[in-house]
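**User:**
If convenient, please work through this fold.
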Amino acid sequence: QLQASGGGLVQAGSSLRLSCVASTRAFSNYAMGWFRQAPGKEREFVAAISWGGGSTDYADSVKGRFTISRDNAKNTVYLQMNSLKSEDTAVYYCAADRVAGLRSQYSYWGQGTQVTVSS
């Protein structure tokens, strides 16, 4: 089970940090990803991180502004979002899979957390 939190309503230019806690003893065996879905749009890839955190991947739209990280001791993956823009407004989801390097087709999904950025 994946539990995401940290969303909220912020102004453009602000920062937020999302967290996703996994209830599994084998968290370090899973690559993790963040996705988002804006109203009327398809869900899109945001960022991913490998099992140990040594490899990360970002969508072009967030590169340089967002940072994905993980703490395997806490079974938690984070998404630090800086310089937020109104187009970042979406429901954000975390996901897990044993295969690293994915931008889609994750096996496990958490519930979303709403991020709203006002301009």
Summary: The radius of gyration is 13 Å. The chain has a mean pLDDT of 96.
